[in-house]
Amino acid sequence: MAYCAIATSIEFSCDKARKVGGLGQKVWLVSSPDGFTYTTNGSGYITALSFDTYEGLVNIEAIKNSHSAGYELVLTEGGNKFTKHNVLVKCITETPTEIGAIEDLFGWSAAIIVETRNREFYIYGIDNGMNLAAAVQNSGAVAASDISNILTFEGEENSLPKRMLVTDYATTLAYLEAAEI
C-alpha cells in the first residue's frame, strides 16, 4: 500500500496561541475565472494575481465579524480525499444595482479572498472556483432582526485555502484594493 509522506513539522509558538478568529469587513471576489492566474513564491505564498483586461476584484463589505470561511476534508468511497471550501458572506443591499450584483452571482464561479482579524489573507477556491450554493434574506419580525443577505459559497479543491502575502500586510491590502474594479 502506498502512503503519502509528510516532510514538515508544525511547531507551537506563543504568537500562534494569541491568534483570534473571525474575518474583516471586506471580502474580494474574482470578477471572472477567465484569464485569472496567480503567482506563487518558493515559500508557497500567492504573491500576485493576474486578470484579463477589464477584470479584477469585486468587494463585498459588511460589518466586522459578519463573514466566515473554512474548509473540511472530504473522504470519498473510492478513497480519494479533497477539501470542501466554504465562505459565508453577509451584506445589506439598498439599490437595484446591488441587488443585481447578487443576482449576477447565481451564475458566477471563481475564487474568494478573505482577510482574517490577524491581518492575514486567504484565497478559497483558487483553482476550481467557488459557487453560490445558497442565498437567503428575510425581513425579520422585529427591529433587531438580521436583515442581511446571507450568501453561502462552496467549492472543491485538492488543497487547503492558499495564503496570499505580497511582501507585508499593508502592501498586500493595497495590492488587493488596487485590483478592485
Secondary-structure map:
Elements: H1 14-17, E1 23-30, E2 37-40, E3 46-50, E4 57-61, E5 68-75, E6 81-91, H2 96-104, E7 109-110, E8 112-116, E9 121-124, E10 130-136, E11 149-157, E12 162-164, H3 169-178
Antiparallel strand pairs: 1-4, 1-8, 2-3, 5-6, 6-11, 7-10, 8-9, 9-12, 10-11
Write structural notes for this entry.
The protein is mostly beta strands. The protein has one domain. Helices cover 13% and strands 39% of the residues. The chain has 3 helices and 12 strands. The protein has helices at residues 14-17, 96-104, 169-178; strands at 23-30, 37-40, 46-50, 57-61, 68-75, 81-91, 109-110, 112-116, 121-124, 130-136, 149-157, 162-164.
What key attributes describe this structure?
181 residues, mainly beta, five-stranded antiparallel beta sheet, 12 strands, 39% strand, globular
Brief sketch in words of this structure:
This protein is mostly beta strands and 181 residues long. It has helices at residues 14-17, 96-104, 169-178; strands at residues 23-30, 37-40, 46-50, 57-61, 68-75, 81-91, 109-110, 112-116, 121-124, 130-136, 149-157, 162-164.
Radius of gyration: 18 Å
The overall pLDDT average reads: 93
Distance between the termini: 50 Å
Task: Assess the beta-strand content as a share of residues.
Answer: 35-45%
